[in-house]
């Protein structure tokens, strides 16, 4: 229990220190040491608790509840003030509605629902804690050198790194709070803190674009927050348990309405259609923000909530609606990713798509689906954070985040390029992690009632994801001109973090059977009484494949030499071409070869697909909400 | 243990069978065109010659990628014939094609680049269908394992006619036959020169050719599964399917990639939904 | 096994020909003469080819192209000049823009005159070229490549 409190409260200490200390080596060391301690704390949690099953922990409700009340009101006032100052009436309206609902709940019902078992830990929260603690800390450490470089390149942006790191660590604390909270009111409190953190970090640069995008994120997340508040009110009115464990145990009869409302909040937080635009807009924020909040952790909180309620949603019509929203998002977001040449936007679409897959699994809610969903969360968090941070490092060196400018990266920045390669292959290739998860999801969908739609969505979607990942992969490897190696300019700290994440990607793939057996399966077993596996022999074969892939580059030593081999020119239809790829075109005009990827705008155009996606998902979400509003429809 | 032996047998024997199939393909094609055509062993002569050529390269790393392509195609075929999980076979096959595409990207040539992009479009087009073939086999026979599907004991083709039609349509692209040979073509040069294999010569090209043989045998194997309950029927059916593919190859011109992608997806969607929905409605899932 | 002889792939380049020889070359691929029965394939890619078939003579623009294509072919390779223009410039030899036959730019192994060259001569010429190819291969192996 002390460990949980440590994980939730210690980052706050770091946050305050970062706010107070000036930019100085001491502050940097505070961040590094804190990061290591937080990561170590999460690992220690794993080691001590992984076989203990689910444990509830008693924490006195007061004075924590009182403190939370105060902070919630303070947040509301801050949002109100900012909404007025930046003239965003929608934000003002939403925060007023949400605050009203929550306060009503607080005064009317909360006293009667006071509980003791406010925190808990189980295998799933250990997994989430590891992601937050290890990956989150790595990202914060990376941010030290990244933000320094960022402000050197952007002198016009006010240096507010104190606030930056303060909010980052407060955010880590809130995430730990989310995954350890059993009391839904506390869950909601931490949820709100993450909304605020995201809002403030997106708007970090204070440019007009950043401010608008920050408010877009705020609007959508507040909308979700209202859904959450309505769920709390429903619990208050019907006398349902406020504890997550007892609520979920109660099943659909007791918990379906709050489950659907919280799922709605989860949809907004994880940027599913029709709420995807905020995540795309959030890409204006500095890269560590994109990596931490908008791919590995905060958006995972949204799907975490849905997975927690999966047993309730399973087999219900609203659950099916949630799953359809996820599945549609998966397919359409993957398709739209093809048309993006801005690397961060492409990664954003890919994140949305993968979260869609997790949501689909959550909505289906069978034991196989939840098993697949948790694995998806793990693999995605690791690989995606690696990719975002690598793109950040690359951007600082080549001053562009466009994929078309990343050609020849294997020569310009070989180690970083190799790590991006690992990240990309981790996202879609066998035998790497995401492939395993997609495989598991496919199996889950096939066996689910009415699963054909989802099978189709994943079959078509996976072909689509192949395209944009392989395109980027290819781009890194082409070498049109003789480029020089500029990697020396990258700070050691950044490369070390990237290296650590790459090792994690590979390690998690190698260890996946262990992770599945020790953590995921006990969790699924405890909830559903049934468990599933990918088959022992398949695990062996995949390890074999991984070994082959890792060994294969050694053949480069044999081939890469070229001692007794002649080097041929590229075929340019017989035209004489200079080494820097200039040739005489028709009418003798001098031209230079330039190679670009296909973006297939005509077929997968963002505008067209987004319209379809929003239309379909709005329909699904409205149906889902209406189904719980009209009680008679609930069987 | 037996399974491993089948896998190893595949690795050794498939090139022989595949080369013969390729040779027969060219012979039949020639006869259809009113010509005499090359000897049946021609493909072996071609590969033999390629390995005798000078070891030249455009990028030193290209051989590494093509070796990866060859190894993983052989691996996925071996896994299939050893009776392994069909989905894993498909994922390994996709992995091998990615190696080919990366190999084409690494040479940084305009024709190879276009070939690589179009190869990716090809992969995108057929991936849904082959995944759905596995799903179909699972729903019909209750297992993903090739050994169990093959031992099913009933005519899977009668349970999966729609899936078979979709598979047949996509097979044209998988075998790189007209009208869907958009990335690289077997013998006649085309508007993007040789597409993916433009910058490969000598032993590199030889490895690509051998990989095609492995793939052909694997695809024949998947086709066989539909008819596995009766080996005689299976032989005839596979021969007819291949013959039909050659016929289609000879009588059509290459389609635009947009049409190829769109029509394969459409046929996939319609044929598999019509077929597999029956399983879900009938409660056989 | 004599693979080289049984699988000669050609690349055909037209210099400044009147296309008469080109048409005869292509006629060889048709069912009437069907050179594929000897394993001959017309690949459009020098890196895949063994025999460089050139028709037409050399002019200023074509020099570099012929050289480029020749260089991109892996060993062993032979050059066959089909038609009298490729051999020596033909009836256009005195023109101001014609530099002469292909051997101005690259070493030629087989000369097949004719205006236009006939399919029977083409097939005969290729068979000769195959012999040269085998010799070159033997020499290559001797040199230890």
Q: What's the quaternary structure here?
A: heterotrimer
Average of pLDDT of chain B? 89
Mean pLDDT of chain A equals 87
Can you tell me the overall shape of chain B? globular
User: What is the makeup of the main sheet of chain B?
Assistant: none
- SS element count, helices of chain A: 27
Poorly predicted runs of 5 or more residues of chain B? none
Work out the count of structural domains of chain B.
Answer: 1
Largest interface: A-B, 64 and 66 residues
How do the strands line up in the largest sheet of chain A?
Answer: 1-2
Class of secondary structure makeup of chain B: mainly alpha
Strand coverage percent of chain B: under 5%
Helical content class of chain B: over 70%
Large-scale geometry of chain A: globular
* Helix and strand composition category of chain A: mainly alpha
Distance between the termini of chain A: 41 Å
Runs of chain A with pLDDT <50, length 5+? Answer: none
- List SSEs of chain B in N-to-C order: HHEHHHHHHHHH
Q: What percentage of the residues of chain A does DSSP assign to strands (E)?
A: under 5%
* SS field, number of helical segments of chain B: 11
**Rg over alpha carbons of chain A:** 25 Å
Brief summary of the model shown:
The complex is a heterotrimer of chains A (635), B (285) and C (145). Helix content of chain B is 73%, strand content 1%.
Mind explaining what this structure looks like?
The complex is a heterotrimer of chains A (635), B (285) and C (145). Chain A has 635 residues and is an all-alpha fold. Chain A has a domain at 1-258 and 291-311. Helices cover 73% and strands 2% of the residues of chain A. Chain A is globular, with a radius of gyration of 25 Å. Chain B is mainly α and 285 residues long. Chain B is 73% helix and 1% strand. Chain B contains eleven helices and one strand. Chain B is globular. Chain C is α/β, with parallel strands linked by helices and 145 residues long. Chain C has helices at residues 3-6, 20-29, 60-72, 84-88, 119-142; strands at 9-14, 41-42, 51-55, 58-59, 78-82, 98-100, 110-112. In chain C, strands 2-1-3-5-7 form a five-stranded parallel β-sheet. A two-stranded antiparallel sheet of chain C has the order 4-6. In chain C, strand 1, helix 2 and strand 2 form a beta-alpha-beta unit. The mean pLDDT of chain C is 90. The chains are: A mainly alpha (635), B mainly alpha (285), C alpha/beta (145). Chains in contact: A-B, A-C, B-C. At the A-B interface, helix 20, helix 21, helix 24, helix 25 and strand 3 of A face strand 1, helix 3, helix 4, helix 5 and helix 11 of B. Strand 3 (566-567) of chain A pairs parallel with strand 1 (56-57) of chain B, so a sheet runs across the interface.
């Amino acid at each position: 229990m002390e460990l949980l409190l440590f994980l939730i409260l210690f980052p706050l200490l770091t946050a305050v220190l970062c706010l107070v200390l000036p930019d100085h080596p001491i502050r940097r060391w505070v961040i590094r040491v804190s990061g290591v301690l937080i990561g170590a704390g999460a690992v220690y949690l794993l080691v001590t608790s992984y076989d203990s099953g689910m444990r509830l922990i008693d924490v006195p409700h007061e004075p924590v509840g009182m403190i939370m009340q105060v902070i919630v009101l303070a947040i509301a006032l801050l949002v109100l003030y900012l909404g007025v100052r930046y003239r965003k009436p929608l934000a003002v309206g939403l925060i007023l509605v949400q605050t009203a609902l929550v306060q009503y709940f607080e005064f009317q019902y909360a006293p009667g629902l006071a509980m003791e078992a406010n925190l808990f830990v189980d295998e799933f929260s250990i997994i989430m804690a590891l992601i937050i603690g290890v990956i989150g800390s790595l990202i914060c450490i990376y941010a030290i050198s990244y933000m320094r470089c960022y402000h050197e390149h952007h002198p016009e942006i006010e240096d507010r790194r104190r606030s930056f790191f303060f909010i980052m660590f407060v955010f880590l604390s809130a995430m730990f709070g989310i995954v350890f909270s059993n009391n839904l009111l506390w869950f909601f409190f931490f949820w709100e803190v993450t909304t605020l953190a995201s809002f403030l970090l997106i708007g970090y640069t204070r440019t007009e674009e950043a401010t608008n995008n920050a408010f877009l994120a705020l609007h959508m997340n507040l909308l979700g927050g209202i859904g959450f508040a309505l769920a709390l009110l429903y619990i208050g009115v019907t006398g349902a348990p406020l504890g997550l464990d007892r609520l979920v145990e109660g099943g659909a009869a007791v918990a379906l309405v709050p489950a659907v409302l919280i799922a709605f909040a989860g949809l907004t937080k994880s940027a599913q259609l029709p709420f995807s635009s905020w995540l795309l807009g959030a890409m204006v924020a500095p890269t560590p923000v994109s990596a931490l909040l908008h791919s590995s952790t905060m958006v995972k909180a949204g799907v975490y909530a849905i997975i927690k309620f999966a047993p309730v949603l399973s087999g219900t019509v609203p659950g099916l609606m949630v799953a359809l929203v996820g599945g549609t998002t998966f397919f359409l977001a993957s398709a739209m990713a093809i048309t993006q040449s801005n690397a961060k936007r492409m990664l954003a679409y890919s994140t949305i798509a993968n979260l869609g897959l997790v949501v689909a699994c959550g909505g289906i809610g069978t034991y196989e689906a939840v098993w697949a969903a948790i694995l998806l969360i793990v693999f995605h968090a690791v690989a995606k954070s690696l990719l975002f941070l690598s793109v950040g490092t690359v951007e600082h060196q080549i001053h562009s985040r466009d994929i078309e400018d990343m050609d020849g990266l294997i020569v310009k920045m070989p180690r970083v390029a190799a790590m991006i390669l690992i990240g990309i292959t981790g996202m879609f290739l066998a035998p790497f992690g995401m492939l395993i998860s997609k495989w598991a999801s496919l199996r889950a969908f096939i066996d689910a009632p009415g699963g054909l739609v989802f099978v189709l969505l994943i079959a078509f979607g996976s072909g689509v994801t192949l395209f944009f990942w392989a395109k980027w992969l290819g781009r890194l490897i082409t070498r049109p001109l003789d480029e020089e190696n500029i990697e020396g300019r990258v700070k050691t700290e950044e490369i070390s973090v990237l290296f650590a994440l790459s090792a994690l990607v590979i390690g998690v793939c190698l260890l996946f059977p262990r992770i599945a057996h020790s953590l995921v399966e006990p969790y699924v077993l405890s909830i559903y009484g049934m468990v599933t596996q990918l088959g022992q022999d398949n695990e062996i074969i995949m390890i074999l494949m991984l070994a082959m892939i890792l060994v294969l580059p050694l053949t480069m030593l044999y081939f890469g030499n070229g001692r007794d081999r002649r080097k041929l020119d590229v075929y340019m239809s017989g035209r004489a071409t200079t080494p820097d790829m200039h040739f005489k075109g028709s009418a003798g005009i001098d031209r230079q070869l330039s190679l670009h990827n296909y973006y297939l705008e005509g077929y997968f155009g963002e505008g067209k697909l987004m319209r379809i996606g929003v239309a379909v998902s709005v329909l699904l979400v409205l149906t889902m909400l209406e189904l719980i509003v009209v009680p008679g429809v609930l069987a | 243990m037996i399974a491993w032996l089948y896998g190893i047998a595949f690795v050794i024997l498939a090139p022989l069978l595949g080369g013969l199939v390729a040779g027969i393909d060219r012979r039949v094609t020639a006869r259809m065109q009113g010509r005499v055509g090359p000897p049946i062993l021609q493909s072996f002569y071609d590969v033999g010659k390629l390995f005798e050529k000078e070891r030249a390269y455009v990028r030193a790393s290209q051989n590494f990628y093509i070796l990866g392509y060859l190894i993983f195609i052989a691996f996925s075929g071996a896994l299939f014939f050893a009776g392994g999980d069909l989905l894993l076979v498909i994922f390994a096959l996709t992995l091998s094609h990615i190696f080919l595409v990366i190999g084409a990207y690494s040479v940084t040539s305009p024709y190879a680049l276009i070939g690589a992009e179009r190869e990716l479009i090809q992969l995108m087009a057929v991936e849904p269908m082959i995944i759905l073939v596995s799903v179909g086999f699972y729903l019909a026979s209750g297992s993903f394992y090739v050994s169990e599907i093959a031992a099913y004991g009933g005519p899977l083709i009668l349970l999966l006619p729609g899936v078979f039609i979709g598979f047949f349509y996509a097979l044209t692209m998988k075998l790189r036959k007209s009208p869907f040979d958009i990335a690289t073509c077997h013998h006649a040069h085309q508007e993007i020169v040789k597409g993916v294999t433009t910058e490969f010569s000598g032993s590199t090209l030889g490895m690509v050719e051998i990989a095609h043989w492995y793939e052909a045998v694997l695809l024949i194997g998947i086709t066989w599964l539909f008819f596995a309950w009766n080996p005689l029927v299976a032989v005839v059916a596979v021969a007819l399917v291949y013959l039909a593919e050659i016929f289609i190859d000879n009588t059509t011109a290459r389609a635009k990639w947009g049409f190829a992608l769109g029509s394969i997806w459409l046929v996939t969607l319609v044929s598999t939904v019509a077929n597999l929905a029956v399983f879900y409605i009938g409660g056989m899932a | 096994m004599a693979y080289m002889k049984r699988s000669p792939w050609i690349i055909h380049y037209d210099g400044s020909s009147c296309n008469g020889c080109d048409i005869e070359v292509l006629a060889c691929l048709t069912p009437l003469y069907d050179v594929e029965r000897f394993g001959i394939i017309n690949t459009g890619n020098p890196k895949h080819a063994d025999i460089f078939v050139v028709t037409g003579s050399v002019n200023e623009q074509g020099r570099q192209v012929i050289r480029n294509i020749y260089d991109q072919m892996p060993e062993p390779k032979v050059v066959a000049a089909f038609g009298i223009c490729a051999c020596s410039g033909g009836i256009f030899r005195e023109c101001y823009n014609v530099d002469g036959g292909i051997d101005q730019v690259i070493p030629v192994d087989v000369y097949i005159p004719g205006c236009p060259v006939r399919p029977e001569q083409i097939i005969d010429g290729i068979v000769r070229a195959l012999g040269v190819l085998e010799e070159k291969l033997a020499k290559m192996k001797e040199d230890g490549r």
